[in-house]
Amino acid sequence: MHEDRIRHAGLRDRVISAEHAASLIQPGETVAMSGFTGSGYPKAVPLALAMRIEQAHAAGMPFQIKLMTGASTAPELDGALAKADAIALRMPFQSDPDARKRINEGTLDYIDIHLSHVAQHVWFGFYGPIDTAVIEVSAIREDGTLVPSTSVGNNKTWLDLAKKVIVEVNDWQPADVEGMHDIYYGTALPPHRKPIPLEHVHDRIGDTALHCDPAKIVAVVRTNGPDRNSPFTPIDSTSERIAEHLIDFLKHEVALGRLPANLLPLQSGVGNIPNAVLAGLAKSGFRGLTAFTEVIQDGMLDLLREGVLDVASCTGFALSPEANEAFKRDIAFYRERIIMRTQEMSNHPELVRRLGCIGMNGMIEADLYGNVNSTHVMGSRIQNGIGGSGDFARNGFMSVFLSPSTAKGGSISALVPMVSHVDHTEHDVSVIVTEQGLADLRGLTPKQRARLLIDRCAHPDYRDALQDYFDRALHHSYGKHTPHLLPEALSWHQRWLDTGSMKSWSLL
User: Fold this and answer.
1) Catalytic-role residue among 76, 136, 253, 294
2) First and final CA of the chain: distance in angstroms?
3) What angle do CA 355, 344, 346 make, to 5 degrees?
4) Running DSSP on this structure, what letter comes out for residue 129?
């Protein structure tokens, strides 16, 4: 460990072990930790805390905490604490299989909210006081300010409000990440809010480090551990077709003059389909692009390196091991082209609306009228959470939702009569894309949307059944504005639960 990573003499004297730091966290506390989509989360203290809680449980002593983060983290944090039955309440986003299992069993309470809402909800005290913040940083400066690592997330809010702070200084993180961050300290609560002075993606409006009263820092822990750098699977033909449909559409919008030649700032969810879209943009001749998004993944690094993307604003990374090595190797190049902001800014409705972002996010299912479910399988089993998709769907210039037309080997249709859970209403959904085609829903009535979605996006195995449902609803629905047959509207989901397939045997 390089001692110059802790350049504040007083805080260097507070270096202790992860086990000692974990002992400072007491049962029943609300603990706010850093981390966003597998980057910048504490690596050692959560593991030590999980071990401490396991020992307490073995001795018959109750011990759980309420856990807040920026978004999803990793097995060393969410996974270890979930396995130890250490979490009583989790918010605002998770993707860990052990945590998900407990949430869906009903043994772990979970609050799923828009990521842009987290900071203000915590400031208003909806979740009570924050007892301890555990924050990973890449360095502590001479003046005691904290240089974030590979995510910023809600760290500013956690440091502002926590009663005590534990800092992990991770030597694995590149020291040269210093200078990449933009921490804005001009926010306020109503009625004292002022316009945020950011008009372009490349604008810098804040500081390059986090402020924290050194007196609140009760422990500093030295670590040397990697982020959760999960490899992406190779882009498959389905993802490529989805990407091709969307890129053809964007070219069409440019030709009509509804988008500029360099598009508008891009927001992209994480996964193979967004990576396929980003790869397709590079091949399609687009240049001078910008990104105002939550997470930078492999595809955006490629676009920056190839000169397709000029600048990208984010709050965290989700990189494969290979992409992470490239990022660390060429960090001087990326530091001039990447700006890392707080989650409060990366997802801020004011900024998303002002910049006119194009939101591209995945979904579980959409219904005939364009309502989208992005969180719950069969209406009740949480997958991950809404994340920031709603921030961009509601406030961006264009909201695009992408998905294969079927799942589970074809037994589930992504287009259904009525979604089993609504995250994004038809009013917030502009475009839906599957490998079958693309439906631009803007300016259409509900019945026009239904016809277009069936024609363009439904899988052939389900198209006739959807058309049959819609035709009968046109005649027998109580109202004809948004026709539905209520006894049948969710029958496809029940059929899958009963038989393992949404297909009606009479139509096979």
Assistant:
1) 294
2) 64
3) 40
4) -
Is 294 in the active site?
A: yes
Widest CA span of the chain, in angstroms? Answer: 77
Name every residue whose Cβ is closer than 8 Å to that of residue 415 and which is 6 or more positions away in sequence.
Answer: 365, 366, 367, 368, 405, 434, 453, 454, 457, 458, 459, 462, 466
> What is the structure's pLDDT at 505?
54
Looking at this protein, which amino acid is placed at residue 401? F
Cα separation, 52 vs 410, whole angstroms: 45
List all residues 6 or more positions away from 9 whose beta carbon is below 8 Å from its beta carbon.
none
**pTM attached to this predicted model:** 0.95
The total number of residues written for the chain in this structure: 508
Summarize pLDDT for 239-285 with one digit per residue, the tens. 999 999 999 999 999 999 999 999 999 999 888 898 899 889 989 99
| Residue-wise pLDDT tens digits, 451-488 | 999 999 999 999 999 999 999 999 999 999 999 999 99
The Cα angle at residue 267 between residues 261 and 273, in degrees rounded to 5: 95
Query: From CA 360, how far away is CA 138, in angstroms rounded?
Result: 31
Angle between helices 446-456 and 460-476 (to 10 degrees): 160
Q: Model confidence over 431-453: pLDDT tens digits? A: 999 999 999 999 999 999 999 99
